[in-house]
Amino acid sequence: MRAAAAGGALAALLLAACAPGPAHPPVFLESETGYLAPADLARLAQAVPPPPAPGSATDRADKA
């Protein structure tokens, strides 16, 4: 009788350890807000050269 009670207690303990806990917030939510401030994004956008004109030699070389 004691062995059955001990086995039942052990089974309950093991099942309780596998019980789901509270859900964690998804990690990707942090990335949706962005990593850089809007002023930093504007500075980066100004630093990027404009795209080549359509049909120019540079444009054709980029597509090759």
Task: Characterise the protein shown here.
By secondary structure, the protein is an all-alpha fold. Helices cover 59% and strands 0% of the residues. It contains four helices and no strands. The protein has helices at 2-17, 28-32, 38-47, 57-63. The longest helix has 16 residues, at 2-17. The termini are far apart. Keywords: Signal.
Describe, in short, the structure shown.
The chain is built from four helices and no strands. It has 64 residues and is mainly α.
Order of helices and strands: HHHH
Q: Helices and strands: which structural class? A: mainly alpha
Low-pLDDT regions:
none
> Treating each run of at least 4 consecutive H or I residues as one helix, how many helices?
4
The level of helicity is: 55-70%
Q: How would you describe the oligomerization state of the chains in this entry?
A: single chain
Strand content: under 5%
